Amino acid sequence: MLRSALSIGLVSATVLLGGVTLTASASAAPAPPAAGPGKPTPYPADSLRALGDRVGLRIGTAVNMDELGTNAEYTKITAEQFSSVTAENVMKWQLVEPTRGTYDWAAADELVAFAKKNKQLVRGHTLVWHSQLPTWLSSDGYTTTLSNSELKALLKKHVQDQVKHFKGDIWQWDVVNEAFDDEGKPRETVWYKAWGGLGYIADAFRWAREADPKALLFYNDYNLEFTGPKSNAVYDFVKTLQAQRVPIDGVGFQGHLATQYGFPDLQNNLQRFADLGLKVAETEVDVRTFTEPAPNVNTPTSPLAPYAQESYWSRALKACLAVPECISFTPWGFGDTYSWIPGWFTNPQEGAALLYDADLKPKSQYYVIQQDLALAAGAPRRAPGGPGRP
Ligand code: 9MR
Q: Where are the beta strands (DSSP E) in the chain?
């Protein structure tokens, strides 16, 4: 009853849940006072970030730097709703060193400044990956004209320089991203080939720890959400890192979910990694569904799809809430227009994967998450962690 009242967006409906008054439509909420220059944007008591604060759970978002600062509504939502931000692209190697030997930190620095101003923590994404490499290094992540010794020196310099540049400003670093394939085999990337194995991963974590001892260091990947060859391989590998005293603090579960597949045994997987003494996080959550062909790529083909999406969002959040070591829950952006999904999954078309629609209005999925957070006051409180942090 409550859900349906919220889902159909009764503009005047307000509900008291978990001690917080939830407003059914963001536009019906009293407008917060405008933020002055240099002042943080005030955020409402029923925002996702305010509700997450009560259990110590950071609610994050990936940020598109083409919109932040130029699109007023986008900027306001980023500040009001989220207590953590991840650079969707601007901290990737391709963007920070497009020309060999010349760094461009401008967009990433802008995001860090925005986060500081708005009292948000930053997830650094990502230091070592085979994708989105500058073309001077590799155009496909698997082949290169550079020698193994050059690659080794380049990766060391990249990790050290980037972590030092942001020293003190990053809460969690995705040190290594997507090193395993879906069969649980190591991807034979340029890094794997240069080291003759996975040794580059231990080296990268050690360099990152030296460069910023206070940042939490994460391994991040997709399809770790369910028990299978990939999550088993990463689980075993992480144990070998720990046995070698490699400074790994956490594992990121990207959480790119789709209604066409069954909901994964996510809580079990978060818990088994947490039981290794690690932090865990949901780092790139979206829930895609089948949609109409272009130009209506964010219109579900089935009117029932949003119900499945609401359920998946809710279960993904609750899996994190149930595991005290799960310190952040980060959707991969918040407006369907900016999602990577419609451009990537085209045959058949999928989309409508985020909490806000193409007009930046909250969808029913948003209200479900908001309601779950309001009710989560009894969930175990988590500590953000990291050396020097509670
Ligand atoms: O959302 C990102 C998109 O804008 C980029 O074009 C794409 C390039 O590979 O990367 C997307 O983000 C990815 C993230 O960095 C790592 N996990 C998968 C994400 C979706 O592809």
A: 14-17, 20-23, 58-63, 84-87, 121-128, 172-177, 216-221, 250-253, 256-258, 279-290, 326-331, 350-351
Q: Is residue 390 predicted with pLDDT exceeding 90?
A: no
Q: For residues 133 and 96, is the Cβ–Cβ distance under 8 A?
A: no
The partner residues of 180 in beta bridges, in order of sequence, read 186
Contacts of 91 (CB under 8 A, 6+ apart): 108, 124, 125, 126, 162
Quickly list DSSP for 137-151: T-SSSS--SS-HHHH
Beta strands 172-177; 58-63: pairing state: unpaired
pTM over 0.90: yes
Q: Which of 63, 89, 175, 218 to mutate to test the pocket of ligand 1 (most atoms within 8 A of CB)?
A: 89
Which sequence spans correspond to the domains of the chain? 40-378
Confidence bin at 24 (pLDDT 50/70/90): low
Average pLDDT over residues 328-355: 98
For residue 28, the model assigns a pLDDT of 42
Dist. CA 88 → ligand 1 center (Å): 7
| Proportion of the chain above pLDDT 70, given as a percent | 92
Q: Return the CATH fold of 40-378.
A: TIM Barrel (3.20.20)
Q: How far apart are CA 154 and CA 131, in angstroms?
A: 16
Dist CA 246 CA 219 (whole Å): 12
Instruction: Report CA(226)–ligand 1 centroid distance (Å).
Output: 21
Rounded CA separation 47/45 (Å): 6
| pLDDT, tens digit, 9 for 90 and up, residues 242-283 | 999 999 999 999 999 999 999 999 999 999 999 999 999 999
